[in-house]
Amino acid sequence: MRWGLASTGSTHHYWHIDANGFGTFVHVETGVKLWFIATPKNGNYADFATWELYVNDFALRKPNEDKWNMELIVLEPGSMLIMRPNLPHSVVTPSPTICRGGHFYCVSTIIDSVVGIFHHYVASDTISNTNHALASHNVLTRLLTFYLLVLVDSDDETEYDRSHVPDVTSWDGLLTIFHLCNYFELHSAILGWYFAYNGDVRAFKASIRNRARARELIYWFFSSHELEGNDGVITGLEALETLFCRFLAQQASALIYYKKMAWKKHVRGADVNIPPSAVCLHIQATLREGPAWIAYSSLSLNSDDQDLDTQELTFSWPAEVYSIRKVGRVEFHFPYLDGHVWGDRLVAERLGISLSTFQPRRDQDNELTSWAFYTPEQRLEEDHVSEKGYVSDTPPESPTLAELSLDTSDSEA
Asked: How many CB atoms lie within 10 A of CB 332?
């Protein structure tokens, strides 16, 4: 995505992050830009992945020196700045200036990009100045498909530029995969399940396909790698539940709590009228009948009436770092490869369509061969309950279709 920008002199753009988790490059053609960037006080950019950052004592027009350090970069004609995503910055233009630039996603900063998307969802009306949601989602969809193609479907002899693919034998590379897959798991909730209200059947089916792709990538990793931590080696389903499922549940819970606290402080996102209670229902409808539902329920963070332990409510990985080794095939049952979640049923009911999608069909060696038409009824018939009860009947407290409507009557949740 590229753009040009012309500005008169004596202008000031207050503290913000660039929209939708994009990184930014800017090249000054004429004039000058004074670019103030925030840097974390302890050098760890995970400090910018907390819900408190733009909620507790954030001042749009002040330095916020209690939250970050500041550096000034002077951009003159011929100079270029390349800026990481999710980086707070403020810009002063002292004289008439023309510059050109653009936005990008980069494999080394996907973690920051996804966190930036979460910030944008909750607080964009305060901390951003535009919205590139469609472009963002299209690029991330292509990235997910490319990762799946290179990591899962290709052999070692196929030539690809792997510099654009995470190294999943490194911890940062694995966290890159986790963040990207979590984005697609939560995408329907971030959109407020809008498919149900504008009749966009194509986008609805695409959301299911993307979840299926993300889960295929996660299944591939945990069926072909083992991880060693402080308590020993884990692999297969145990590793998937311990690491990925819990992290997805943590980020979902952090998003709910972030929305609740931001609403109380009158900090709003792109959809300014969606209250925290609706966000909670949207996220629950996205997680229910998915791989992280049990982990989410065990965190006990899905009730507005509880005193929550906010120490776990961050978008960054909170726990120990594991070493990763590639191993032979580890088979385990993972009944979520069709990409469905409970909320899809409600949307299909509203749209008046039969809920069906494409499911990966595997050959006798469990390799992906084609996409087969597959209905939820068949899926439920073939599913079996794991020891931890991942697949279960829908509890009575599940949100109904009416409850998932965008009721804007709440003033606070």
From this structure: 14
Distance CA 86, CA 52 (A): 14
Q: Let me know: does 102 contact 64? Beta carbons within 8 Å.
A: no
The number of residues in the chain equals: 413
pLDDT of residue 394: 34
**93 touches 34 (CB < 8 A):** yes
- Residue 265 CA: distances (Å) to CA of 154, 239, 347, 384: 49, 38, 32, 45
For residue range 283-304, what is the model confidence (pLDDT) as tens digits? 999 999 899 999 998 875 544 4
CA distances from 306 to 116, 257, 278 (A): 27, 11, 17
Among 61, 43, 42, 49, which residue's Cα sits nearest to residue 85?
49
- Which helix or strand (DSSP H or E) is residue 92 part of? strand 89-93
Q: Which residue has the higher pLDDT, 148 or 159?
A: 148
Q: Is the pLDDT of residue 47 over 50?
A: yes
- Write the DSSP assignment of 253-296 as a string of letters: HHHHHHHHHHHHTT---SSTT--HHHHHHHHHHHHTTSTTHHHH
Query: Residue 110: helix, strand or coil by DSSP?
Result: helix
- Nearby residues of 156 by Cβ (< 8 Å), 6 or more positions away: none
C-alpha distances out from residue 166 to 236, 268, 396, Å: 20, 33, 41
- pLDDT, tens only, 74-95: 999 999 999 999 999 999 999 9
